[in-house]
Write a structure and sequence with these properties.
- By secondary structure, this protein is α+β, with helices and mostly antiparallel strands.
- It contains four helices and five strands; from the N terminus they run H-H-E-E-H-E-E-H-E.
- The protein has a single domain, classed as 2-Layer Sandwich (Translation Initiation Factor Eif1).
- The protein has a five-stranded mixed sheet, with helices on one face.
- This is Eukaryotic translation initiation factor eIF1-like.
- Keywords: Protein biosynthesis.
Length: about 120
């Protein structure tokens, strides 16, 4: 959708508001390709776990986890979740660290990352 600064726009407002099916499919594909970074409180204590889900299947998540463990000095693992697929778990609140690291390593674009 383009926004024109031309004040002589003869299109009706409803025509400009309707969206193109290609744009809708682009938005849907971006939503599916989002990488979600969440923090969860462990049930047994005050400690937290950072979870990363939605990374592309072409990446080796075990190598990514190993690099994150080394970079952030924390423990981590990859687990298989029935609904979410492969999920990376890291000890502590590493949301901002993971976001910056994924961008720095060019694994994700900033608009693909969703922090919760």
């Amino acid at each position: 959708m383009s926004f024109d600064r031309n004040t002589n726009n003869t299109q009706e407002p409803t025509a400009a508001a309707s969206s193109d099916p290609r744009e809708e499919s682009l938005v849907e594909s971006l939503m599916e390709n989002l990488v979600h970074i969440r923090v969860q409180q462990r049930s047994s204590s005050r400690k937290t776990i950072t979870t990363v889900q939605g990374l592309a299947a072409e990446f080796d998540l075990k190598k990514i986890t190993r690099a994150c463990r080394k970079e952030f000095a924390c423990n981590g693992t990859v687990t298989e979740h029935p609904d979410q697929g492969l999920v990376i778990h890291l000890e502590g609140d590493q949301r901002e660290n993971v976001r910056q690291w994924l961008i720095k390593m060019d694994l994700c674009k900033p608009d693909q990352l969703k922090l919760h």
